[in-house]
UniProtKB/TrEMBL annotation:
<keyword id="KW-0812">Transmembrane</keyword>
<protein>
    <recommendedName>
        <fullName>ABC1 atypical kinase-like domain-containing protein</fullName>
    </recommendedName>
</protein>
<keyword id="KW-1003">Cell membrane</keyword>
<comment type="similarity">
    <text>Belongs to the protein kinase superfamily. ADCK protein kinase family.</text>
</comment>
<keyword id="KW-0418">Kinase</keyword>
<dbReference type="InterPro" id="IPR004147">
    <property type="entry name" value="ABC1_dom"/>
</dbReference>
<keyword id="KW-1133">Transmembrane helix</keyword>
<keyword id="KW-0067">ATP-binding</keyword>
<keyword id="KW-0472">Membrane</keyword>
<dbReference type="Pfam" id="PF03109">
    <property type="entry name" value="ABC1"/>
</dbReference>
<dbReference type="InterPro" id="IPR045308">
    <property type="entry name" value="UbiB_bact"/>
</dbReference>
<keyword id="KW-0831">Ubiquinone biosynthesis</keyword>
<dbReference type="InterPro" id="IPR050154">
    <property type="entry name" value="UbiB_kinase"/>
</dbReference>
<keyword id="KW-0808">Transferase</keyword>
<keyword id="KW-0997">Cell inner membrane</keyword>
<keyword id="KW-0547">Nucleotide-binding</keyword>
<dbReference type="InterPro" id="IPR010232">
    <property type="entry name" value="UbiB"/>
</dbReference>
Length: 520
């Protein structure tokens, strides 16, 4: 009971801050029932005078910054989910930045010493004051002396003390508020408020374990090891723990410093093309992409190589989603709208009761206008946004991974075009898309598909003895117990055995069919 009172008070405080900063102005009153319209009017009456004319931060940006780091993180998360908050709110939330003062160097050193059980002087030959600070952690510049006498510069990311406890309390309050919203506004179920809070909780929990971020950094580095124009820092595993992440220090120019890039002799146009191609390689080729590629996380080093940092937010795509993305992009490039439509149906994203031809017609309405304009005037991210809007008319369910991909593409495209305003996104994307399709849908891909089918077939065959043994054990146990319902249960077991056999035969047929298709 006391916890409910606390969460209610916290929820009232959140509502008050949102109202004062004008955040309630984004709510469409026409979509609310009468009793909540009245509550919205009362809330709007609390707005600070002249707030609408304030040319500074957006209402949501002001409100969430006032509420603290947990809500800033919540806003940044919602910025990747325009399917939940709408594009207007998502654009406002994109501007959210962690404006948190650093904590003292001495406190950071104590965190490092607690994690490794050694004084900082035994771990590093130098350890600087904080050079960057955010809501969860801050970064220090440090140096180490290797056994061969080589001195290396490292970046040491240190968890902010007490941040886990504060996030845990705020998450509990958010869970309570999500339940209240769902109770007061049943129509809000389509926005899945409780699910959104749980996704945020999982995301932040993972982000607060720096060993997982180091693993993401390492995986991305492994995936892109053969890319001559992109790299990631190397994690220092011996100096990484739950609350401390140590990695290679990056000396470079941030991508939002175009003048500095030109002054250093780098080609901003080539760099813009690298940004979009690197992202698409990660998404389509590897299925694992950096989902926070804003200019503050991207550098160009002295060799002109693009370097990404901060791997707290990553996205994954399965093989089916990667094929989906590659084929729809190629379909728009080649104006094959029927193929774009068929891909949606083959992936199971659009229900079968809809017509492929009707869907292709709707996609043509998106695709044809872009072929009437110069390539540098076309936004690939906008095309995907329009595509998702159209698919909503055909009952396509929301795909979280595709929404994150689309939102990241908006940011990536903005970064690329800031370097080269005339960048032809489609020409830049085509080599990556065609390469993946040739590799995975051509002869080599079919051979690999056949190999996967054969492996599945062998696994099914190897499972048959185990299924038979499980059925036998059930029969023996029933016989030993002398149950009066043994015969009935025997019939059930017999039916299960027949079902297992028929399931096995069906899987055999599917696997053989896959082999046949693979070699056609």
């Amino acid at each position: 009971m006391l916890g409910a009172v606390f969460h209610l008070a916290r929820g009232a405080h959140v509502g008050f801050v949102l109202a004062r900063e004008g955040g309630l102005a984004l709510i469409d009153a026409d979509q609310l029932p009468p009793h909540l319209r009245f509550a919205l009017r009362l809330g709007r009456a609390l707005e600070r005078r002249g707030i609408a004319a304030d040319p500074g931060a957006s209402p949501l940006e002001r409100a969430l910054t006032r509420l603290g780091p947990s809500y800033v993180k919540f806003g940044q998360f919602l910025a990747t989910r325009p399917d939940i908050v709408g594009m207007a709110a998502a654009r406002d939330l994109e501007r959210l930045q962690d404006r948190v003062p650093p904590f003292p160097q001495g406190v950071a050193m104590r965190v490092v010493e607690q994690e490794f059980g050694k004084p900082v002087s035994a771990l590093f030959s130098a350890f600087s004051e904080p050079v960057a600070a955010a809501s969860i952690a801050q970064v220090h510049k440090a140096t180490v002396l290797d056994a061969d006498g080589t001195q290396r510069t490292l970046a040491v990311k240190v968890m902010r003390p007490g941040v886990r406890e504060r996030f845990a309390k705020d998450i509990q309050a958010m869970r309570f508020m999500a339940r209240v919203v769902q109770a007061l506004l049943p129509d809000a179920e389509r926005l899945r408020p409780r699910e959104v809070v749980e996704i945020l909780a999982r995301s932040v929990t993972m982000e607060m374990d720096f060993r997982l971020e180091a693993a993401a950094m390492s995986e991305l580095a492994q995936n892109t090891a053969g890319d001559a124009d992109f790299r990631t820092p190397r994690p220092e595993w011996a100096l990484t723990a739950r609350d401390v992440l140590t990695s290679e220090w990056i000396d470079g120019i941030r991508l939002n410093d175009r003048a500095g890039i030109v002054a250093a002799g780098h080609d901003p146009k080539a760099l813009g093309r690298t940004v979009i191609q690197s992202f698409l390689r990660q998404a389509i080729r590897d299925g694992f992409f950096h989902a926070d590629m804003h200019p503050g996380n991207l550098f160009v080093d002295r060799d002109g190589i693009l370097v990404a940092v901060d791997f707290g937010i990553m996205g994954r795509l399965g093989h089916a989603e990667r094929r989906f993305l590659a084929e729809i992009l190629l379909g728009f490039i080649t104006r094959d709208y029927r193929r774009v439509a068929q891909v949606h149906f083959e992936a199971g994203y659009v229900p079968r009761h809809h017509s492929v031809d009707d869907f292709a017609q709707a996609i043509r309405a998106i695709g044809e206008p872009i072929h009437q304009r110069r390539a540098d005037e076309i936004s690939m991210a906008k095309v995907l946004t329009l595509l998702f809007d159209v698919t909503a008319l055909f009952d396509m369910s929301t795909r979280t991974e595709l929404v994150m991909l689309q939102k990241t593409m908006v940011v990536v495209e903005g970064v690329a075009r800031s370097l080269d305003p005339q960048l032809d996104m489609w020409t830049g994307a085509e080599p990556v898309v065609r390469s993946w399709i040739t590799r995975h849908l051509g002869p080599i891909g079919r051979l690999e598909g056949g190999a996967r089918a054969a492996l599945t077939l062998s696994e099914v065959v190897s499972d048959i003895p185990d299924i038979a043994q499980r059925i036998r054990r059930i029969m023996i146990r029933l016989d030993e117990e002398g149950s009066r319902d043994v015969k009935a249960l025997e019939r059930i077991a017999h039916l299960e055995q027949r079902r297992a056999v028929w399931s096995t035969l069906a899987l055999w047929a599917i696997a053989v069919g896959a082999l046949v298709l693979a070699f056609r």
